[in-house]
């Protein structure tokens, strides 16, 4: 149960959502946008956030699109992870989404909610980073398109008045050879130690990671090392480990030392599989 009251709004258009945000902000309501709402509910129950108003984006048609448009895959921010997996228009994204939480939770968790969340895994962003996807963002200044690399650095960096409307991915990435590994300490239960998503495009391997550091990431420096095929794989992996963007985390799932061990093994599996393909 959420231990405080708040106002609820469900606009039917992008323009109306932004207008409501402006008005509620002027009234001192500390408004928040939400798509799936699972994480916001969790934080609110623990008194970690206190919005005076929430703006539900699920009635906005553009946020529910999931189709190919002019050789681009367009996915609305309010599309659930379950719907993504079922449609399977971008197999790597579908497989990654299917590994998030359990089926009941995936029915509620949305693509936008997962990407914009505060929990450090946010795995759904990994295929989008690999595919150099674009994002459509709405705010007081209007609707704009940007590279995901411009707005996602450790987390989705939007202005308070902005929200994610859609992701746009070039169709050529949808059929690229890929691998996805999610390593847990025990079976298929609990948070992961390491998640790696990787694909091969134009004979080059691209990799992205979650669970390793305190944020999901793609490292172009690591990719440069991995694509030096004249160097033995074991040497490449050691070099890649030195280029991680932040310290490897220690948490209830495993120590940094154990996580590094798992990461190295998983890197080897990913590179070997894609180099053979």
TrEMBL record:
InterPro entries: CO_DH_flav_C (IPR005107), CO_DH_flav_C_dom_sf (IPR036683), Diverse_Substr_Oxidored (IPR051312), FAD-bd_PCMH (IPR016166), FAD-bd_PCMH-like_sf (IPR036318), FAD-bd_PCMH_sub1 (IPR016167), FAD-bd_PCMH_sub2 (IPR016169), Mopterin_DH_FAD-bd (IPR002346)
Keyword Iron on entry: no
All residue ranges annotated as the FAD-binding PCMH-type domain in the record: 1-174
Record's keyword terms, sorted: FAD, Flavoprotein, Oxidoreductase
Gene3D superfamilies registered for this protein in UniProt: 3.30.465.10, Uridine Diphospho-n-acetylenolpyruvylglucosamine Reductase, domain 2
Lineage top rank: taxon: Bacteria
One MF term in the entry's GO annotations: oxidoreductase activity
Pfam family, one: FAD_binding_5
Keyword Oxidoreductase: yes
PANTHER family tied to this protein: XANTHINE DEHYDROGENASE SUBUNIT C-RELATED (PTHR42659:SF2)
Protein name stated in the entry: Xanthine dehydrogenase
Source organism: Brevibacillus brevis (Bacillus brevis)
Lineage: Bacteria, Bacillati, Bacillota, Bacilli, Bacillales
């Amino acid at each position: 149960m959420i231990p405080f009251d708040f106002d609820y709004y469900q606009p039917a258009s992008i323009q109306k959502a932004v207008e409501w945000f402006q008005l509620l902000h002027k009234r001192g309501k500390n408004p928040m946008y939400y798509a799936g709402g699972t994480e916001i509910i969790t934080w609110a129950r623990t008194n970690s956030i206190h919005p005076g108003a929430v703006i539900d984006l699920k009635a906005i048609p553009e946020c529910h699109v999931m189709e190919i448009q002019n050789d681009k895959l367009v996915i609305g921010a309010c599309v659930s992870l379950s719907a993504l997996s079922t449609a399977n228009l971008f197999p790597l994204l579908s497989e990654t989404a299917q590994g998030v939480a359990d089926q009941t939770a995936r029915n509620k968790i949305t693509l936008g909610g997962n990407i914009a969340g505060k929990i450090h895994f946010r795995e759904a962003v990994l295929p989008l980073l690999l595919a150099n996807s674009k994002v459509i963002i709405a705010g007081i200044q209007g609707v704009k398109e940007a590279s995901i690399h411009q707005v996602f650095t450790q987390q989705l960096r939007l202005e308070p008045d902005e929200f994610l409307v859609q992701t746009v991915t070039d169709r050529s990435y949808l059929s690229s050879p890929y691998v996805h590994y999610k390593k847990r300490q025990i079976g298929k239960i609990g948070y992961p130690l390491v998640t790696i998503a990787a694909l091969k495009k134009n004979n080059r391997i691209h990799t992205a990671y979650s669970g390793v550091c305190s944020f999901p990431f793609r490292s172009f420096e690591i990719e440069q090392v991995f694509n030096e095929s004249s160097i033995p794989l074991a040497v490449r992996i050691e070099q890649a480990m030195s280029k991680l963007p932040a310290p490897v985390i220690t948490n209830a799932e495993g120590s940094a030392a154990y996580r590094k061990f798992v990461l190295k093994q998983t890197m080897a599996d990913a590179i070997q599989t894609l180099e053979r393909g």
